[in-house]
Design brief:
Layout: H1 8-17, E1 19-22, H2 31-42, E2 54-55, E3 68-71, H3 78-84, H4 87-97, E4 101-112, E5 119-122, E6 131-132, E7 136-142, E8 153-155, H5 179-188, E9 195-196, E10 204-208, E11 213-215, E12 224-233, E13 237-238, E14 269-272, H6 280-285
Antiparallel strand pairs: 1-10, 2-3, 3-4, 4-12, 4-14, 5-11, 6-13, 7-10, 7-12, 8-9, 8-11
The protein binds 2-oxoglutaric acid.
Length: 288
């Protein structure tokens, strides 16, 4: 699935800026099947019979001014799973992040039709602190050509080195989508730059878990669909230090009693340096 080979220059760019933009993540010929998968998911047609972990928008009752979002679409739709459980993407993430391997934490199915509103700037790792080591790295795949006025994802170069912020502000349709990032920049005493990810369909980006990012309103006449894989290290465990604060109403349900290891049924390993990959992924993708 993954077309792009990670180079030394890519790794240096990622380490310096906290993100990497590439034009060739997946074959554009594969995109119509993913558009169909998006359509199915937002109409509530769940191929496997499993409801995704978070269904924040449906055609029947979704607010048309908001970005459509579903999380862990891979559990409902095998075409989504084929991308976000891809070995090559897992490997690229691990290579950029310098990890021994990568496993899926969550996917995001995001559809921003023309005139839909922004998504607030944030640092991903601020929202997902229940595992340790608590590192995230994300692959963001554009399923339409993207442009600056089309509500594409934006990054602040170097912001992965800023202080770790607490979750702040609205994610969906905030009044001023860059405000939390500007506040963080002021605390750093720096003037933030912005990079827009402008790529053909099938291109996209990788970003570090502490890189500030968000996206504006879609002012273009075209839809902006993106499939996002948020990955964590293959060797993470639930963090007992977080239990007192609660580990969230959704992902805590996958924790085994008396065992801090993550269950590969829900957080499969995509790629590991020693050759391991959760073997049951193949059965799942083949419908067995
Ligand atoms: O697609 C977007 O606009 C934002 C996605 C996002 O927040 C992420 O990939 O972490």
């Amino acid at each position: 699935m993954m077309l792009h080979e990670i180079t030394t220059a890519d790794r240096e760019h990622f380490a310096e800026d906290g993100y990497l933009v590439v034009d060739d993540l997946i074959d554009p010929a594969h995109i119509p099947v993913l558009h169909q998968a998006f359509d199915d998911l937002f109409h509530g047609r769940f191929e496997t019979g499993v409801r995704p972990d978070e269904v924040n928008w449906q055609v029947a009752d979704g607010d048309p001014s908001r970005t459509r979002q579903i999380c862990n679409g891979w559990k409902a739709n095998r075409e989504i799973a084929r991308v976000v459980l891809d070995e090559g993407i897992g490997r690229a993430i691990a290579e950029l992040a310098g990890w021994p391997g990568a496993r899926i934490m969550i996917d995001n199915v995001l559809w921003k039709p023309p005139a839909t509103k922004s998504l607030g700037f944030h640092q991903d790792s601020a929202y997902l602190s229940w595992f340790t080591p608590s590192d995230l790295c994300t692959c963001w795949i554009a399923l339409d050509a993207t442009r600056a006025d089309g509500g594409t994802i934006e990054f602040v170069p170097g912001s992965h080195r800023w202080a770790h912020s607490e979750p702040e502000g609205e994610f969906h349709a905030p009044e001023d989508y860059r405000a939390p990032m500007r506040d963080a920049a002021a605390r750093e005493g720096t003037e933030p730059g912005i990079t827009y990810v402008e790529v053909p369909a099938g291109g996209g980006s990788f970003h570090h878990g502490w890189t500030w990012h968000g996206s504006g309103e879609n002012l273009s006449p075209n839809p902006r669909r993106a499939l996002v894989l948020h990955a964590m290290r293959s060797d993470v465990e639930y963090d007992p230090a977080q239990f007192a604060q609660g580990i969230g109403p959704i992902y805590s349900r996958y924790k085994r009693l008396g065992d801090n290891r993550l269950d590969e049924n829900y957080f499969p390993v995509l790629w590991r340096k020693d050759g391991y990959r959760t073997p049951q992924i193949t059965d799942y993708l083949d419908g067995r």
